[in-house]
Amino acid sequence: MGTAGYDRLDLLAQLLREARHALVLTGAGVSTESGLPDYRGSDGLWGARRFEELAHIEMWRSEPEEFWAFYGRRLAHLGEAQPNAGHVAIAELERLGFVRRVLTQNVDGLHRSAGSVAPLELHGTLAEVECLACGFRGPKEIAAAQLEAGAPVPLCPACGSNLKPAVVLFGELLPPALGEAHAELAQCDLLICCGSSLRVFPVAMFPERVLSNGGEIAVVNLGPTGADPQARVRLEVRTGEALPALLDLLEN
Question: pTM for the full model?
């Protein structure tokens, strides 16, 4: 299953058996196998605008109808998605004690649906909406119901201001979850990076943080990543294929 020049899946299994504090870091590539689009990939255009423009706090402020037209589509996609074999395998690796915690760049909530305990959602979650005016926070269904009823912009049920998805948009401050992530990384002796290009900061620095503490890096991803030169194990395989196979090795 490994590619030329990289180590095999059985080495990753060995590293996991020996690790004391293994973490899994996931990106959009884990959820594309559940049918969710990777808006930042090669198909990253929506209309004539890029994800980085649409998912910006200034777009929410200045063009809320266009913003919610895009996020309404994202919520619809999310409502149809189910955890895939990769999500399920990660949750089982946690249950068996091989993985301490999941750190995810994804906002789809599929790790929670698969059974992962307290995944650290670095960029927030689409499962909830929030009001920056009064601090209200509630389930995404509040916004989805209003959009389905024809409202161009969902409004806060508490104060009537425009709602916002409970995600960290471009242009916003770094999330509090980042501090918690650094505490986990300080203990990490094996970071398994799955479905992420590892080119977006600050997550791109996570592998270096683990390496500086003497830990190991493993990469499971289709396409190159920023951590490839430092990876002890590199698998050019879909996570939905590689992670269940890894689980099988560890259980047998």
Answer: 0.88
